[in-house]
Write the structure tokens for this entry.
Amino acid sequence: MDVMECLRTRLTVRAFRPDPVPAEVVQKILEAGRLAPSSRNLQPWHFIVIRNPDTLRAIGAVATSGRFVADAPMAIAIAMENADRPELDAGRVLQQMELAAWSEGLGTCFVGLRVADQNRQVKELLGIPDQIELITVLPFGYRPQGMRGAGRKQRKSLDEVAHGEQFGQRYESG
Ligand SMILES: Cc1cc2nc3c(=O)[nH]c(=O)nc-3n(C[C@H](O)[C@H](O)[C@H](O)COP(=O)(O)O)c2cc1C
């Protein structure tokens, strides 16, 4: 899939087909993450592939903003170790994973895990050591057919966010 086509059509997916995600597709998603850029090229990440339905259900039971993890066939947790800018580096990883997955017919959703107690509980479930920061769990699965809102994005217009030369000046494309 062309990059711009992928960017235009990608949407967050919170319901998945039950079909398992083939190993080669999981590999492609991991590879997309591995290739991400990072501050000082430290690559301070760990990717935990979760396929055990009991673990997926347990994460869904803990994560109030990601109940749907319970019904995903697979998930990848992104954890950061000694990162300069953990959220920025992890953001690059997960966007690359998300786009690679989308191009294969899958979807995902960033699950925040920002509530300290929920984050701690999911770290325990995954055996993540204290000093390593858990950023997100990304559930992955094939997108349901005829997904509601497919291809439609709700975004501010360029006029609202793009400035020309100076903040507050209108950006003229011509
Ligand atoms: C940093 C970040 C955190 C997010 N956290 C959650 C979350 O915890 N649960 C959830 O359902 N969606 C979460 N989302 C998904 C956003 O709601 C979604 O990306 C946004 O509404 C735009 O929709 P779209 O991705 O379909 O274009 C998060 C997205 C980002 C970028």
User: Anything to note?
Assistant: Residues 3-161 form a domain with the NADH Oxidase fold (CATH 3.40.109.10). The CA atoms of residues 36 and 156 lie 27 Å apart. The chain has a mean pLDDT of 95.
